[in-house]
Structure formats: structure tokens, C-alpha cells
Write a structure and sequence with these properties.
It is found in: Cell membrane. InterPro entries: Beta-lactam/transpept-like, Glyco_trans_51, Glycosyltr_51/Transpeptidase, Lysozyme-like_dom_sf, PBP_transglycosylase, PCN-bd_Tpept. With 683 residues, the chain is α+β, with helices and mostly antiparallel strands. Among the domains are: 40 residues; 190 residues, Penicillin binding protein transpeptidase fold; 224 residues, Beta-lactamase. The protein is 42% helix and 11% strand. β13 and β14 form a beta hairpin. It starts with a helix and ends with a helix.
């Protein structure tokens, strides 16, 4: 027993020494940190410049929400409502702590530990001010430690009112507005000193997430947060119940920026640049807008102007129908122009990047690429007629052609693509296997949920226009290394390079067959070639006479979507048109907008550029064939069409040989009249 007491006492003494030593070391560390902070002196309160965006030619980009001025006002000039609302929602113990709210930090740390990641912040106004002045917005422990050190320095050398004043003059309210004065003028076109309680509490909720809580971005989220702020102010006795209720029901009149927005260069493009930069830098969108970065983009101002002028011309007088369009460099994937809708001031929703719609027949080129890699050639014949397919699970599938037109005969793949024959497409999908088709789509970068079913050949999958045009860029370039992008370089305000675009050396697990890709690319020029007319005209016939050079492409139609994606050797452009509420397009004109906008814009973009040809790779053979029979063309053939095939797939017969067989029969009939009469009777 005595031995146990001695051992216990010994353990207690050692534990006490260890805790005392650790405590002493902690005190020394804190004192050392404070001494170091004092030696460094007061930190500068100057802020970084606004983020600046540049066009592809290096000129600074003009934008309605870029480069807004920072207007500093004193704390005395700010209304009490602004100060109280900010303290209530951000840091109500601000005047009672020394830069850190340890109670709030403990609660947040417990939440983070439960989630095993940083999900809840506990930053005081001092810490937020430190981050806005000196640091990035990345969610890492290293950044948190730096933030804490700067917060200590601010608390040592500046009064609380100075810190609060600086915070309210530099915090980001979205839309290019930094500080309460700029925000007040942007949202309400008035000085901050004239803000009402309702207006002040609305603005106080924005900095937590301007893209989420701005009333100009999401009114419901903004009003919900405003109500929470008013309730918090009421709990803290900053306002009375009647004041709270009056502010909740108050109607707010926001300033109309449509005139300024009309001057912006590619506003939909600018929004996508910010989102892409956030992904590349692994920060929040707000951190990009307020980070003082220099972002160099791919936007070609001439292309953007051409697109917007063509869009205005084509949709002049249209009512509810919407559209989206994007232009990419065929060789690099650089986006040179973008319109996510008809009017950014009416809707900032980007239908190029944020909307997924059924793609219809625009998916067929990828199907035929897969077929070429599974034994097909552009001259493979299949019958186009009403067909009911019996599936492995016992179900039946009965697709139909547009307006129920059929060849009722064999047609080539080249003609099936030009006429957009659905029966040929479904037969091909079932023959190579729907899973093979899905795997092929993955090679082109499509990561959506793609069901391996027969109808996938007709474009029943929903994919964004951005991804579709990216896929076409890979197809026309014959490489998965062509990647869509809007940014070439990002630097900080000291011109340190943070990111620079480089074409990937390879894409893991993905490789494309250049010969098959070129064969399909060239087949797609057939949608404008009347030589491929059959049981109906080629699908691009309505705009063929507007085109001054060789293009390829594919249109697509569903009940509620109209697509046109086409290309030259230099550029790929995609257009979607339809209604945001997915209503059916019942007017014939609705189905024509996409093609017209595509043709108009592509002709403008290529004006003055040298004519460039599609150059086949290595071993492909270019042969002229008779589109109807798929045989080699000859002097007696009524139509001919150039196709590119592998050497083994070059036809051995010409359409003349078929004609000679017919002549022999006719000669026999002339020699034997009674035989001819019998034949005529059977016909």
C-alpha cells in the first residue's frame, strides 16, 4: 500500500512538473509572439487593388462589376443601423475581446472536429479585417495562424473604432462594391448615411456570401438572412419589436444598373471567368473578385461583338424564347465569345455553362466515331425504314424519323449523318453495344449520367452546351488534350504567377483515334451538301446558301430544344435555343433560330480570315462515291460525294457497273418481247 502511495505521488509530481513546464513554455511563446508583433510595428491598412481582367489581346476588360471605386467614410458618417446590424450578425462581442472570441472558437472547433473538416468559421471582425488586408481566402490551418498573428498586431496598434471603420470600408459586398459607402450607392443609389434600417440590415447580410446573399443575385436568400439579422438585433436590444417588424415588411427599391450592364464586354463570359478562377485557385468566388488578382482571359472582343450583334438581329421581335452560344478555338479550346442568354440584365443565368438540356441528334457524331472503331466505315449500308427493335429484356423500342420520312432502302453512314436518320443511329448503337457508346462518350469528356440504352443514340441525355462544344473540339481536333478554358494566366497584385494554362501532355485513360475522328469530322460537312439529299434534304440545307466556305456541323432537335453545333478548321461554335420552362416549341421559326444564329455569327467571325481546309491524317483515302449506292463514282453517276475511308474500305465497284447490268436486262427484254411483258406484269 505504501509503495502504491509513493508511486502515485511520484506520478502526480511528474505530471505537475510537465503541466507547469508546458504552461511556462506557452506563456513564453505568447510573450515572444507579442514582443515580435510589437517589434514589427503597426501593419499597413492599405488594401490591395481590385481584381483586373484582361482580354485575349492584353487590353483591360470593361465590366460593370469590375474595378468599382473604394470610397472611405468615417465611422461617424455611418448610420447606427449599419454598425449595429454588422456587429449583431458578425461579432456582437467585438468591443469586449482582444481580437479573438474564444467561446465562439471552441464551438466552431467542436463542429469542425465532428465533420472532420473546416465547415464553420468563428472569425471576429478583427480577424476578417486581417484576412481582407493581407491574406487569401483559402480554408487552411496555415492561413488561420497567419490571420491570428495579423489580428494580434491590429489589436495592439489600433483602437477598436479604427478597426471597425477599416472593416466597414473594405469588406466586399459583391458586384465590385467594396465598403459600405460603395455598397450603398451600388444597391440603393444613396450615401450610406441615408440608409434606413431595412436597407442597412439587407446590406449587412451580403458579405458572408455576395453571390448567395445579394438581393440582386438571390432575393429569397437575402431576405431570409435580413430577417435573421433583425431578429438578432432585437435579441441584443439594438432595436424594438415594432422596429423589427416594420423593417421586415419594408419594400426596398434597388438601383437599376441595366444601362451600365449594357456597356460590359461579355458579362456571361466574365462570370464564367470568375467561377473558373475560383476552381483553379481553390478559393471562393468572392475571394477572386476581391483578391487584387490580374486575370488574363481568352475573350476575343471582335468575336464577342459579332456574336452579340448576330444574336440581336436573329431574335429581334422574339418574345419568351431564350438562347445560348459559345465560340471556341478549334485547336486549343480557348473560349473566344460567349452569350449565356439574350439579355444579361434580365437574367444572369448562364445557359451555356449552368443549364443541361437534352442534346438530340448532336450526339450522333460521337456514335459514328464509336462505330468506325468497331468495324464500320462511312460507306456501311443499313436499311432506313419503320423498325421495332426487340431488346434483351423483352421490351420493344420503336423510334421514328423526323416527320416519319424513310428511305425504305439501304443508306450509307455518310448519308444517314447528313439526313440525321434515327433508324440508322439506333441500329448502330444496338450493334456496337450501348455500353461501348457510353465508354466512347467518356473519352470525349462527358461525365454526366449516361444510361446505356438504345435511345441514347438519339440524344436523350442532358448535357450542357459548354460540354457539348468542348466534345466537338476534341472530335474535330482528334485529341482529348483540347480542353475548354477561359483563362490563360493569373497573377497576384505583385505579378507573381499563380496559374498559367498549359495544354496537357496527356489525359489519363483517354485516347482518340485521329483517323476515325477526321472521318466523322469530314462526314459532318455533308449536312450542307445537296449531293447527299435523299428521302429528304440534308439538315443544313436551310442555311447552306448563307455559307461562304466549308464548314461541318450537326443540328439537333427535341420537343423543347433546338441545337446547332458546327465548325471550321479554325473555330467551333455551338448554339442552343428553347424555353427556360421546357415548354414545347410549336412554331417552325423556333426550330430555325439556332441554325440562323450559328450561320450569321460564323460568317462574321471568319470574314477576312484565309480559307483553311480540313487536312486528313496519314493513311486515310479520299474517294468520290455515289451517295445512293455507296460505290465509287463514275461519269454516269448523277451525284458524287467525297468521303475519307481506310484503304481496306475503298469500294471495288463503281455505280457505272450497276448501270451496265440494268442495260443488259433492257437489251434482253428487247430481244424477247413476251418475256418482257411477263416482267412488266410482275412489276
Amino acid at each position: 500500500m505504501l509503495l502504491f502511495i509513493r508511486l502515485s505521488w511520484k506520478w502526480v509530481r511528474r505530471s505537475f512538473k510537465a503541466f507547469f513546464t508546458l504552461g511556462l513554455l506557452g506563456i513564453i511563446a505568447v510573450l515572444g509572439l507579442l514582443a515580435y508583433a510589437i517589434v514589427l510595428g503597426p501593419p499597413s491598412l492599405s488594401t490591395a487593388q481590385n481584381t483586373t481582367y484582361y482580354l485575349a489581346d492584353g487590353e483591360e476588360m470593361e465590366g460593370y462589376d469590375v474595378g468599382a471605386s473604394r470610397q472611405w467614410i468615417s465611422l461617424d458618417e455611418m448610420p447606427e443601423e449599419v454598425i449595429d446590424a454588422t456587429l449583431a450578425i458578425e461579432d456582437h462581442r467585438f468591443y469586449n475581446h482582444y481580437g479573438f472570441d474564444f467561446k465562439r472558437m471552441a464551438s466552431a472547433a467542436l463542429t469542425d472536429l465532428k465533420a472532420m473538416r473546416m465547415v464553420e468559421g468563428a472569425s471576429t471582425i478583427t480577424q476578417q479585417y486581417a484576412r481582407n488586408l493581407y491574406l487569401s481566402h483559402e480554408k487552411t490551418w496555415k492561413r488561420k495562424l497567419k490571420e491570428a498573428f495579423y489580428a494580434i498586431r491590429l489589436e495592439i496598434f489600433y483602437e477598436k473604432d479604427e478597426i471597425l471603420e477599416g472593416y466597414l470600408n473594405t469588406i466586399y459586398y459583391g458586384h465590385g462594391a467594396y465598403g459600405i459607402e460603395s455598397a450603398s450607392r451600388y444597391f440603393f443609389n444613396k450615401n450610406a448615411g441615408d440608409l434606413t434600417l431595412a436597407e442597412a440590415t439587407m446590406l449587412a447580410g451580403v458579405p458572408k456570401g455576395p453571390s448567395y446573399y445579394s438581393p440582386l443575385a438571390d432575393k429569397d436568400n437575402a431576405e431570409s438572412r435580413q430577417e435573421r439579422i433583425l431578429s438578432r438585433m432585437n435579441d441584443l436590444e439594438f432595436i424594438t419589436n415594432s422596429e423589427k417588424n416594420e423593417a421586415v415588411t419594408a419594400s426596398l427599391d434597388y438601383y437599376d444598373h441595366s444601362a451600365e450592364e449594357a456597356k460590359a464586354v461579355g458579362p456571361y463570359f466574365q462570370d464564367e471567368v470568375v467561377r473558373e478562377a475560383a476552381r483553379l485557385l481553390d478559393v471562393e468566388v468572392e475571394a477572386v473578385e476581391s483578391g487584387g488578382f490580374h486575370i488574363y482571359t481568352t475573350l476575343n472582343p471582335d468575336h464577342q461583338k459579332d456574336l452579340e450583334e448576330a444574336l440581336d438581329e436573329e431574335f429581334n421581335g422574339a418574345v419568351d424564347i431564350e438562347t445560348a452560344a459559345v465560340v471556341m478555338d478549334s485547336k486549343t479550346g480557348a473560349v473566344t465569345a460567349m452569350a449565356g442568354g439574350r439579355d444579361y440584365s434580365a437574367s444572369s443565368f448562364n445557359r451555356v455553362t449552368q443549364s443541361k438540356r437534352m442534346v438530340g441528334s448532336t450526339i450522333k457524331p460521337f456514335l459514328y466515331y464509336a462505330a468506325l472503331n468497331n468495324g464500320y466505315s462511312p460507306l456501311t449500308m443499313q436499311e432506313s425504314k419503320p423498325t421495332t427493335f426487340e431488346l434483351e429484356d423483352g421490351d420493344v423500342y420503336s423510334p421514328s424519323n423526323y416527320n416519319s420520312y424513310y428511305a425504305n432502302d439501304d443508306i450509307t453512314m455518310a448519308q444517314a449523318l447528313a439526313l440525321s436518320d434515327n433508324i440508322y443511329a439506333v441500329k448502330t448503337n444496338l450493334d456496337i453495344g450501348p455500353k461501348t457508346f457510353v465508354d466512347t462518350l467518356r473519352d470525349f469528356g462527358f461525365n454526366e449520367d449516361l444510361p446505356a440504352v438504345p435511345s441514347l443514340a438519339l440524344g436523350t441525355a442532358s448535357i450542357s452546351l459548354y460540354d457539348m462544344v468542348d466534345g466537338y473540339s476534341k472530335l474535330t481536333g482528334g485529341s482529348p488534350k483540347i480542353q475548354k478554358h477561359t483563362i490563360t494566366k493569373i497573377t497576384d497584385h505583385r505579378e507573381n504567377v499563380l496559374y498559367e494554362y498549359e495544354k496537357p501532355e496527356s489525359v489519363e485513360g483517354k485516347k482518340l483515334d485521329k483517323e476515325a475522328a477526321f472521318s466523322v469530322t469530314h462526314m459532318m460537312t455533308g449536312i450542307f451538301d445537296s449531293a447527299l439529299n435523299g428521302y429528304m434534304n440534308v439538315t443544313g440545307s436551310s442555311i447552306a446558301d448563307q455559307l461562304s466556305r466549308t464548314y461541318g456541323g450537326k443540328s439537333g432537335t427535341t420537343d423543347s430544344d433546338s441545337w446547332m453545333i458546327g465548325f471550321s478548321p479554325q473555330y467551333v461554335m455551338g448554339v442552343w435555343s428553347g424555353y427556360d420552362d421546357n415548354r414545347k416549341m410549336t412554331q417552325p421559326r423556333d426550330q430555325q433560330y439556332s441554325k440562323e444564329l450559328w450561320a450569321n455569327t460564323m460568317e462574321r467571325i471568319h470574314e477576312g480570315l484565309p480559307v483553311s481546309a480540313f487536312t486528313p491524317p496519314g493513311d486515310l483515302r479520299g474517294v468520290y462515291i455515289n451517295p445512293e449506292s455507296g460505290k465509287l463514282s463514275g461519269p454516269a453517276c448523277p451525284e458524287e460525294r467525297l468521303v475519307y475511308v481506310k484503304k481496306k474500305d475503298v469500294p471495288k465497284e463503281t455505280c457505272e457497273e450497276e448501270d451496265s447490268d440494268i442495260k443488259e436486262i433492257e437489251e434482253e427484254l428487247q430481244k424477247d418481247p413476251w418475256y418482257r411483258s411477263i416482267v412488266d406484269w410482275f412489276q
